Amino acid sequence: MKRIKLLFLVLVIPFLASAQQISGDWYGLLKVQGMELPLIFHITESEGKYSATMDSPAQKAFDMPVSSVTFIEGQLDLQMANIGAQYKGSLSDSKIKGNFYQANQSFQLDLYTEPIAKKEIVRPQEPTKPYPYDTEEVSFTSEEGKVTLGGTLSLPKNTENFPTAILISGSGPQNRDEEFMTHKPFLVLADHLTRNGIAVLRYDDRGFGASTGDHNAATSSDFATDVKAAIKYLKSRKDIDPKKIGLIGHSEGGLIAPIVAAEVPTSFMVLLAGPGVPGEQISIQQIELLGKLQDANQQDIKNEIAVMKGIFELIKNNEEDIEVLRNKLEVYISHQMEKNKVVIEGMSTEEYIEKQIAQLTRPWLRYFISYDPRPTLARVTCPVLALNGEKDVQVGSANLMAIKKALHDGGNRQVTTQEFDSMNHLFQLCETGAMKEYAQIETTMEPIVLETVSTWINKQN
């Protein structure tokens, strides 16, 4: 059975090594969907035991710990529990040759003792200092002080009673710029909005960048508490109008924003490629859209959907006992692999199944699969702008109709929706919508989309 690549956002990996002169700094370029992500691994040894941290400079993520390290006879195995990742490599002649595994995908990653020259990337929309507005590094706490979130507040100059937007990122651990595929969508969006008289608060996801907490143990509901904390923080400032605070959510952020807006008075809400149906349906839509994009055999697509539906049923019917769920998933996946003669390169069947189970039993995925955003959308009363790209294969534009209907069913008539032709999940003009195109496109977010958002927000306030 041909495997069709699923979802989403993922980009980090840490790592370690062993006694054969392995202490020191190791450099690599992780190649993901046409982009190159520089990584630096700092390896130290004490009393025969090794530890390591990892830097991902492009994501402004530094000193990330490795949770488990095994190095036997030149074979390296690193576990990154916080992001559900693993690295396996072999040390030979001052080089570590290996692969990084995450989200059921494998990426080649070789490490060297010298920095690797990286091609300069042109991103013309990224602003450069000095900015024509003020910026301030801020922090606030969530979950009664258990989580501290670090971010940036951008404030218009010479303007009073301006609206303020909180940016909510998509799935996976991301920094305040929502950095993904060599682009910084939230940096570009925040710059545009602030230049147009709208203050912006953006922050690192919990457990990432300057923020504390465990991202891997959190669900969309937990991330909603972080947004509520951001609102509370903004209301504590004398320079922010508490009646003009709104939300802008991208991808999963478009699922989180309504959870908050349905409970906390909100001036406005913008959904950028937000889900309008349960996560199970989003995942099935992805299989169909990606299968069509990859020109996959229709029977392969049907088989993939059937397998995923079987997995989702197991998850939904065994929520209370994780061990029971793990056992049932092991039996089911093993049977499907044998039935469809699936062979995974680079790892044993047992390892592959264990990785699948680790992903499928994550609190985030179990919540996402079952959560239906429509009843929550029906409780949102503030003005709403919902946008999608016509070629989005991660959250298809068909979600716009579901979002509009749910809002209308709840009595909200302050709803504007728009689909942009030939745009992808990041709102870039594209050829096919494939994720590999993201990094190849210079534009981070099309100006017409930026203008649509800022003009609409200013009309509401």
TrEMBL record:
GO molecular function, one term: serine-type endopeptidase activity
Alphabetical UniProt keywords: Hydrolase, Signal
Entries under Pfam families matching the protein: Hydrolase_4 (PF12146)
Coiled-coil intervals: none
GO biological process: proteolysis
InterPro entries: AB_hydrolase_Est10 (IPR053145), AB_hydrolase_fold (IPR029058), Hydrolase_4 (IPR022742), Pept_S9_AS (IPR002471)
Serine aminopeptidase S33 domain sequence ranges: 189-423
SUPFAM superfamilies reported for this sequence: alpha/beta-Hydrolases (SSF53474)
Bilayer-crossing regions: none
Range of residues in the leader sequence: 1-19
PANTHER family on file: ESTERASE ESTD
Name the record gives this protein: Alpha/beta hydrolase fold protein
Organism: Marivirga tractuosa (strain ATCC 23168 / DSM 4126 / NBRC 15989 / NCIMB 1408 / VKM B-1430 / H-43) (Microscilla tractuosa)
